[in-house]
Design a protein that fits this description.
With 418 residues, this protein is α+β, with helices and mostly antiparallel strands. The chain contains 11 helices and 19 strands. Strands 15-16-14-17-18-19 form a 6-stranded antiparallel β-sheet, sandwiched between helices. Helix 1 packs parallel to helix 5, helix 4 runs antiparallel to helix 5 and helix 6 runs parallel beside helix 7. It is globular, with a radius of gyration of 22 Å.
Length: 418
């Protein structure tokens, strides 16, 4: 199980995360090709080796061409993701990050996530940063992510709305929802940006000390602060004043490796459910999607008979055992369904090690998952349905035939390798 731990000793931004993962081994060419499948034009992405204090690091530079780019809603961004040729897990991770941004922006501006029209966080550079980071994770086959304690600078930063305090209101809202522990450093600049905070909220399973890792790669991603005057200028900088050489280096470190407890792990999760008898199937389907957007680990329905012989539906969500995560899902139950009450209980679970892989088939590359037991023996191999569906449509082939080909390729590549 490949794991990535983001050491945010100097904060995190979307471009820093993408640069760190490229520095750790993700192919910049493959990353750019993945981004090119998005129906978003007017951008250029390049990677540069730079110096930040004592550290050599990789900087991702996004240049946005021209002016007057459209503002985008969360729905519009999800449509762009769904229409791309990116793997399902990349789309899901990126969509979850943008949903976290939408909830934070909505709370700050007193509106709803659906009505938020992204300005800074939904600009082209943020789309490239967020999706590019998720593509890089896929290229490195990263299955799980953790992050260090979060840090903030002090003072103010200039944005489209004028001067705002550090940490920015959106960052603070994202941290509050995720139950993040953060501390202030005596650094007069923005250390954590909304895109960086949202990426971690979408990706991480825990904040704090690094789990036991057999480290295989280390990457350093540079931000825009503290660079030399001849470095290329990107679209992401929100810095008001240059930072001197004596300041904290504007670097994010990522450590990649295999978790020492990767064979299987136990954790506690919370089950939240409601029984509903007055919503249509279409409405319940939309409600399930909103639960995933709010951070549910899993969500499902089951038919049930209710009083007076009425048919009903039990809607269940599985959530991290975290107060902020629980509150977010419960709020979504009351906002997006007709229920007036919930049931909640904690359960323990054992999770097998899972690895996201890609195999070559007669229908092109198809993503899948491989699960192993405590001794490392492969237990299951399973193609990703959406990847199979897309390949079948592209080649005009029967869905079952593509599924069987992908499953056979997965078995051939992984069942006998343990």
């Amino acid at each position: 199980m490949a794991h990535a731990h983001f050491d945010c000793f100097s904060g995190i931004a979307g471009d820093m995360a993408m640069g760190a993962l490229v520095d750790a081994g993700a192919s910049p060419d493959e990353l750019t090709r993945g981004l090119a499948t998005l129906a978003v034009s007017g951008w250029d992405l390049s990677f540069h080796r730079v110096q930040r204090g004592a550290f050599a690091a990789t900087r991702a530079v996004v240049v946005v061409e021209g002016e007057g780019h459209p503002h985008r809603s969360l729905k519009g961004i999800n449509e762009i993701l769904d229409a791309s040729a990116l793997p399902e897990r990349v789309r899901s991770r990126a969509g979850t990050a943008f949903a976290a941004l939408a909830r934070a922006e909505a709370a700050v501006h007193g509106t709803t996530p659906e009505k938020v029209h992204f300005h800074e966080v939904g600009a082209i550079d943020a789309i490239v940063d967020i999706v590019g980071t998720c593509v890089a994770l896929q290229l490195l086959s990263i299955d799980t992510v953790s992050a260090s304690e979060q840090v903030t600078g002090r003072g103010t930063v200039a944005c489209r709305h004028g001067k705002i305090p550090i940490p920015g209101p959106a960052v603070a809202k994202i941290w509050a929802e995720a139950g993040v522990t953060a501390r202030e450093l005596p650094t007069p600049r923005e250390l954590t940006t909304p895109t960086g905070a949202a990426l971690l909220a979408a990706l991480t399973e825990s904040y704090g000390p690094m789990p036991a890792l057999r480290i295989s790669a280390v990457g350093l991603g540079a931000g825009s602060s503290g660079g030399s005057p001849d470095e290329p200028k990107g679209a992401e900088s929100r810095l008001e004043e240059p930072v001197g050489d004596d300041e904290l280096p504007n670097v994010l470190r990522v450590l990649v490796g295999e978790r020492a407890d990767a064979a299987s792990r136990e954790d506690r999760v919370v089950v939240i459910e409601a029984t509903i008898d007055d919503m249509s199937g279409e409405m319940i389907g939309g409600f399930l999607r909103s639960l995933y957007e709010a951070g549910a680990l899993e969500a499902w329905t089951a038919p049930v008979g209710m009083k007076d012989s009425r048919p009903g539906t039990i809607v269940t969500a599985l959530v991290r055992d975290d107060p902020a995560a629980i509150a977010g899902i419960e709020a979504r139950f009351f906002a997006d369904s007709t229920t007036i009450g919930l049931r909640r209980h904690r359960v323990e679970r054992t999770v097998l090690a899972r690895e996201a892989v890609t195999v070559e088939t007669a229908f092109g590359p198809i993503e899948g998952k491989v699960s192993r037991d405590a001794s490392g023996v492969v237990i299951t191999v399973k193609p990703e349905f959406r990847a199979v569906e897309a390949a079948a449509e592209e080649h005009g082939a029967p869905l079952r035939r593509v599924w069987d080909a992908a499953a056979a390729a997965l078995r051939a590549a992984h069942v006998d390798d343990a």
